Structures are given as C-alpha cells and as structure tokens.
Amino acid sequence: MDEMKSLIDENKDRFLEELCEILRIPSVSADNAFDDDVRKCAERIAEFLKTAGADNVEVSETGGHPIVFGEKIVNETAPTILVYGHYDVQPADPIELWDSPAFEPVIKPTEIHPEGAIFARGACDDKGQMFMHVKAFELMMTTGDLPCNVKFMIEGEEEVGSANLQSWVQQNADKIKADVILISDTGIIANNCPSITTGLRGLSYLEVEVNGPNRDLHSGLYGGAVPNPINVLCDMIASLKDDNEHITIPGFYEDVDELSQAERDEMAKAPFSKEAFCKSIGIKDTLGETGYSTPERASIRPTLDVNGIWGGYIGEGAKTVIPAKAFAKISMRLVPNQDSDTITRLFQEHFESIAPPSVSVVVKPHHGGEAAVTPIDSPAYMAASKAMEDTFGIKPIPNRSGGSIPIVAMFEKELGIKTVLMGFGLDSDAIHSPNEHYGVFNYLKGIETIPLFYKYYAELK
Ligand code: BES
Ligand code: MN
Ligand code: MN
Question: For the whole prediction, is pTM greater than 0.90?
Fold first, then answer.
C-alpha cells in the first residue's frame, strides 16, 4: 500500500483541482433556479466515473434530480460494495457571511487544518467525501487491484429529503444489489481521534401556521383584546418543553430506545471537552435535557427545535401592528425505534389541541426519515476499522451521530442491506453553514483509506 501512498502524492494536485471543478457547479437541490446546474453536476460526475473506468455509467432519471450510476464488476464471486453519496448541496445563504464566494473554492489553512482546507459549499457535505470514492476507485483501476465489485449511486436530492429515491431503489433493486453499502457523509471525532459512525437520528420536519385576525391590525386600537398570532405561537412553542427540557407531546418518548448503562459508559469514553465545545461555537453554556451528557443529548436523545420563525413587521424602524399570521418551521430529531410518521401525527394532534380557541392553526408536514444503527461486529465494520487503523495509526472508536441520513434505514428496509458510515469530516467543518470547508488532510486520508476498506472487506467477507 506504499504504492498507493506515493500515487496519491503524485496525483494530489489534480485530485484537488478536480474536486474544485465539481464544487464550482452550484448544485443546490432546494432551489429550482439551480436545476440546470444540478444536472450539469450529475453529468460531470458521470464523466469522472467513466474516465476512472466504470462501466454502464448513466445519469438516471427519477422524476426529480437525477441519480448517477456506474459500476465495475470484476468477479461474480467477489463481494459487491454499493457506494452511496450525494452531489446536491445546501443553499449557500446567508451568502454575505462567507469570507470567499461559496461556489469559488479556495484552499487555505485553518487552526484545525494547518495543511489547508477547501472552502466551498459542499466541500465536506458531500461532494468532497463522495469524490474521494471516485478517486480511490480510479487509483484501484490504475494499479489493477480492485478486490471487490463496486456500484456507485450518487443522488441529487439528499438535502431536500430524497423524495424520489425510494421508488428508484425499488425499480432498480436488481441493478444495485450489493453486499454492503459504503457511505462517506458523516465525520470523525478529530483528525487524531478517528471514529466510525454507528448511529444516525431520524427526522420529522413540519411547518406551522397560526391565524388570528383577518388582517394586520393597529396594535393600539386592538392590542390587548385580540389574539396576537406571534404571541400565541411563542406560547405554544414554549409549552412544547418543560423545565427539564423534556418534550411535552403526549406519547413522544413512548417508543424511544433507551441505551443500557453499559452502552452509555462506553460512549462516555469518547473524548469530549465541554469547554472546547462551548468555545468552538461561541456559547456560554450548554442547554439540554436533564439527566444526559452533552454528547448524549446530541446523539441518542430525541429533540424538538424551531428552525425558523416569522411574521409581522420586520422592516426598519417601528410599525405598530398586530399581525394576522405567524409561522414557524419545526424539526424533531428522532432516535431508533421512534417512527417519524407517528411522531409527526402526535405533534400535529398535540399542536392543534393546545391552540387557544381564538386562533386557528395549520400544521404542514414536510419530509421525514427514520433513525438507524449500524452493527459493530460485521465484516464491513471490521474492514472499515482496520482500514482506518492502518491510515490513521489509531483504532477508530464507534460513535453515534446526531445527524440524519434517512436513506440508511430505507436501504435496509428495501434491499435488506446494511451500511457502513465511514466518513472523514469534522463537526467544525461548518456543513450547512457559511464557510463550509473540508480538510485537505481528510480528503486525502479518505482516498487512502477507501482502497484498504475494499481489501479488508474482500478478505473478511
Ligand atoms: N451528511 C448530512 C448528515 C450528517 C452529517 C450526518 C454529519 C452525520 C454527521 C446530510 O447531508 C444531512 O444534512 N442530512 C439532513 C437530513 C436530510 C433529510 C435533509 C440533516 O441531518 O439535517
Ligand atoms: Mn450529506
Ligand atoms: Mn447535508
């Protein structure tokens, strides 16, 4: 594998430049204005796959944004890896908070990435991580040492809930048949503390609307006598949690998988500094559910958060007005065994029931998804662990993440295939935020680790 290392070194600049090329395409899936760019990005990735040596490469229609597929079957008896990733990205907003334009990648050092980081929307989530797989595949084709069959499935709607993926998977179940799914769309604890993600949270996302008077009113003439939708919405939202930051929706915790003390003790061994955590995001103290540590609150416990709230007058100066309507977007992160549809229904029923009779509320469910846990005793987990141990020089620790990748549970349900979450990002890489970046170290480390995963997986399987 020293050959691999020197190959990566020789090709390093090209690997970075090619990633930058992908990052320059603003493939924002949430906004129709970018539809052409989303497609252009899919087509460019398909070309890269072809050039690397993949067969049957196609940009496959879904009814929404297309899926890039490609494969290399080396040997019918060898195990097959299905690589999943996404080429769509979150909107760059708020763009004024970026130090350099979101779709003009630049490489510069940071405190955490002294060897440089690539700054661009999608650098870490997930173009940089997805592209590691394309480059690792290219290298294995170059050396003639591809020990597993591989199939690529790179989607363009992950950031908007993968609405068309399930039916595409059902229709293409044979084509994407594999022994394991390999995904790099998560992170490690730190560059000197590698980890493998063994759990993801589910999600229920809704929008609520509180309707009061039939028009905006003079707040002097009417104020004090009529429901103010914003005040009412704030009261309603505030009541969704008690003093212990416990969610008050009846039945909300009913199906929650509680971890055993042994599992919690194991989790607590992962290094965590509350002080560094607070400092890194500029908060004075943490806030969360009584009885759980910060890492637990952010991974194995369900949440309820307002993601956005609006209504009334927000322009300059003062306008004395009681607004007719108020709105909020609310997300609930769910844990294993909670069902997103059930939680969405419980929220809706509860929210309607706590509305005062003076207003009417509308609850609109958006997308959802289920939590997932991945085994730590499977050949695939052990292959990932050995591969990372080789390249980092430290054995990775299993770590449950708080983020969501709903397709992991969906793949298991539809295809009966388990996933390995071998990601290389850092929490500090600012995914979904301004100045998203991805360490050059992490990018190259991923390219180096992936072929070893193939090697060990072929051996262990
Ligand atoms: N890659 C992220 C999820 C992630 C990041 C998981 C880091 C673990 C560690 C993914 O692209 C994402 O942002 N997912 C969404 C959910 C989706 C349904 C919109 C999320 O978690 O908000
Ligand atoms: Mn992602
Ligand atoms: Mn994302």
Answer: yes
Residues 191 and 213 in one domain: no
Same domain, 347 and 433: no
Whether ligand 1 lies within 6 angstroms of the CB of 80 is answered as no
Q: Ligand 1 atom closest to Cα of 160?
A: 19
Does residue 407 lie within any of the structural domains?
yes
pLDDT tens per residue, the chain (461 residues)? 678 999 999 999 999 999 999 999 999 999 999 999 999 999 999 999 999 999 999 999 999 999 999 999 999 999 999 999 999 999 999 999 999 999 999 999 999 999 999 999 999 999 999 999 999 999 999 999 999 999 999 999 999 999 999 999 999 999 999 999 999 999 999 999 999 999 999 999 999 999 999 999 999 999 999 999 999 999 999 999 999 999 999 999 999 999 999 999 989 999 999 999 999 999 999 999 999 999 999 999 999 999 999 999 999 999 999 999 999 999 999 999 999 999 999 999 999 999 999 999 999 999 899 999 999 999 999 999 999 999 999 999 999 999 999 999 999 999 999 999 999 999 999 999 999 999 999 999 999 999 999 999 999 98
The answer, yes or no, to whether any atom of ligand 1 lies below 6 A from the CB of 406, is yes
What ranges in 24-84 are assigned the alpha helix state H?
A: 35-52
| Under 8 Å between Cβ of 230 and 312 | yes
Task: Report if residue 108 sits inside a domain.
Answer: yes
Q: What residues pack around ion ligand 2 (CB closer than 5 A)? A: 125-126, 185
164 lies in which domain range?
2-200+371-460
Same-domain pairing of 43 and 165:
yes
Question: Does the beta carbon of 161 lie inside 6 Å of ligand 1?
Answer: yes
The answer to whether residue 276 sits within a structural domain is no
- Per-residue DSSP letters for 386-447? HHHHHHHSS--EEEE-SS--THHHHHHHHH---EEE---B-GGG-TTSTT-EEEHHHHHHHH
Tell me the C-alpha distance between 115 and 125, whole Å.
20
